TrEMBL record:
<comment type="pathway">
    <text>Amino-acid biosynthesis; L-threonine biosynthesis; L-threonine from L-aspartate: step 3/5.</text>
</comment>
<dbReference type="Pfam" id="PF03447">
    <property type="entry name" value="NAD_binding_3"/>
</dbReference>
<keyword id="KW-0560">Oxidoreductase</keyword>
<keyword id="KW-0486">Methionine biosynthesis</keyword>
<comment type="similarity">
    <text>Belongs to the homoserine dehydrogenase family.</text>
</comment>
<feature type="active site" description="Proton donor">
    <location>
        <position position="204"/>
    </location>
</feature>
<keyword id="KW-0028">Amino-acid biosynthesis</keyword>
<dbReference type="GO" id="GO:0004412">
    <property type="term" value="F:homoserine dehydrogenase activity"/>
</dbReference>
<feature type="binding site">
    <location>
        <position position="104"/>
    </location>
    <ligand>
        <name>NADPH</name>
    </ligand>
</feature>
<dbReference type="Pfam" id="PF00742">
    <property type="entry name" value="Homoserine_dh"/>
</dbReference>
<dbReference type="GO" id="GO:0009088">
    <property type="term" value="P:threonine biosynthetic process"/>
</dbReference>
<dbReference type="InterPro" id="IPR036291">
    <property type="entry name" value="NAD(P)-bd_dom_sf"/>
</dbReference>
<dbReference type="InterPro" id="IPR002912">
    <property type="entry name" value="ACT_dom"/>
</dbReference>
<dbReference type="GO" id="GO:0050661">
    <property type="term" value="F:NADP binding"/>
</dbReference>
<dbReference type="InterPro" id="IPR001342">
    <property type="entry name" value="HDH_cat"/>
</dbReference>
<dbReference type="InterPro" id="IPR045865">
    <property type="entry name" value="ACT-like_dom_sf"/>
</dbReference>
<feature type="binding site">
    <location>
        <begin position="9"/>
        <end position="16"/>
    </location>
    <ligand>
        <name>NADP(+)</name>
    </ligand>
</feature>
Length: 435
């Protein structure tokens, strides 16, 4: 059989890794696929780099020319971002080319434009590398778990944030110092705000939520809270109480609607997710028939991410000549059954909470705080005075049982209004990960 021709857009970390995987594992890939994969054309800012990495491919300066070439069957978009990457992907689809991309931002923000165009043009868009790097979580959600009603997903899906939280906990390092280290190690995105403020994780959980529940992508509705404001005291207190703080992307189907959120979260240290450290990623999926499954691996890096890119290229190559009606749908459900569903505002989500309050160390203070929580229907799981900060001020940590977020917000506002309490109160959400 004739080889499948690939047009590669971008030779950065993942592009270079993709060329390396295709070259290093060419024989094994051909054993699996029954035909060869060949990079026929490449586009990068540097012609020298292109010649060095892909000596046999045509160098094409303009991405829009590459996506129109006769000798390109699959366009692999590894530019990132939503500028020329979006233009090139849309043009590739208009030309009827199949697309593989690692671009989570592009799909989470413009998927509702890209997937319908692909369907109209009988083209396939695959994006395994967009979520959790080398972990085949898209395949699992779209195919492996297809017999289930998925109930919830919770994932450590930003390696940079997980690395920072791990270093802060294990070494007591300051946030700013570890961020610099993460940048030096090449974990962080070009603009680290995307990592530390939750945008990157938000893009990834948005894509997983759409695949899990058969909805259009809705990044605008995703609640984002990163780790930049976390105090190392809270990491320490959480640990003393038997919890770890992780940046989680969470999506859950409830009777009222879908929860879609990213924020620092206390999780019991006995849970597997609590023990995912450093730059590693892990995703827990809870589904009605199979129960709990967990996917762990490298969420970034040249070769792990390229492993996912090449798996997508292989998938498309297998079905390139097949009947389009029997393809796996882009968002796991048949397009006619992808339905918008309510994404719950944060006030309506349900969670447990960690509160740290600084208050006057005098009789009656605890009673007043506990009274406010009771008035707002918030039940206390544990309450400890962590010590006296100075002669008159104590630090109190409260863990609550599960409640609706608006109740905790009302409680915080009322507690902050007490004369005996200093503002602001620190609030971190807590998940048992049982549902
Ligand atoms: N910057 C991302 C991370 C890399 O830290 O996980 C892959 O999306």
């Amino acid at each position: 059989m004739k080889p499948v021709n690939i047009g590669l857009l971008g030779l950065g970390t993942v592009g270079g890794g993709t060329a390396a995987v295709l070259q290093n594992n060419a024989a094994e890939i051909s054993r699996r696929l029954g035909r060869n994969l060949r990079i026929s054309a490449v586009c990068d800012l540097s012609a020298e780099k292109a010649k060095e990495i892909c000596p046999d491919a045509a160098f094409v300066k303009n991405p829009l020319d590459l996506v129109a070439r006769e000798d390109v069957d699959i366009v692999v978009e590894l530019f990132g971002g939503t500028g020329i990457a979006k233009e090139a992907v849309l043009a590739a689809l208009q030309n009827g080319k199949h697309v593989v991309t690692a671009n989570k931002k592009l799909l989470a923000e413009y998927g509702n434009e890209i997937f319908p165009l692909a369907e109209e043009k009988n083209a396939v868009v695959q994006f395994e590398a967009a979520v959790a790097g080398g972990i085949p979580i898209i395949k699992a959600l779209r195919e492996g778990l297809a017999a289930n009603n998925i109930k919830s997903i919770a994932g450590i899906i930003n390696g940079t944030s997980n690395f920072i939280l791990t270093e802060m906990r294990e070494k007591g390092s300051a946030f700013a110092d570890v961020l610099k280290e993460a940048q030096a190690l090449g974990y962080a995105e070009a603009d680290p705000t995307f990592d530390i403020e939750g945008h990157d994780a938000g893009h990834k959980i948005t894509l997983m939520s759409a695949l899990a529940f058969g909805t259009p992508v809705n990044f605008q509705a995703c609640y984002l809270e990163g780790i930049s404001k976390l105090d190392s005291r809270d990491i320490k207190y959480a640990e003393e109480l038997g919890y770890r703080i992780k940046l989680l992307g969470i999506t859950r189907k409830t009777a009222k609607g879908i929860e879609l959120r990213v924020h620092p979260t206390l999780i019991p240290e006995s849970r597997l997710l609590a023990n995912v450290n450093g730059v590693m990623n892990a995703v827990r999926v809870n589904a009605d028939m199979v129960g709990e499954t967990l996917y762990y691996g490298a969420g970034a890096g040249a070769l792990p991410t390229a492993s996912a890119v090449v798996a997508d290229i292989i998938d498309i190559s297998r079905l390139i000549d097949a009947d389009t009606a029997h393809r796996v749908p882009h968002l796991a459900f048949q397009p006619a059954h992808v339905e918008a569903q309510t994404i719950l505002p944060m006030d309506e989500i349900t969670s447990s909470y960690y509160l740290r309050v600084q208050a006057e160390d005098k009789p009656g203070t605890l009673g007043k705080i506990a009274g406010v929580l009771a008035q707002n229907n918030v039940s206390i799981e544990a309450l400890i005075q962590k010590g006296v900060i100075d002669k008159t001020t104590a630090e109190i940590v409260i863990l609550t049982h599960s409640t609706v977020e608006k109740n905790i917000k009302a409680s915080i506002a009322a507690i902050e209004a007490l004369d005996c309490v200093e503002t602001p109160i620190t609030m971190i959400r807590m998940e048992s990960l049982h549902d």
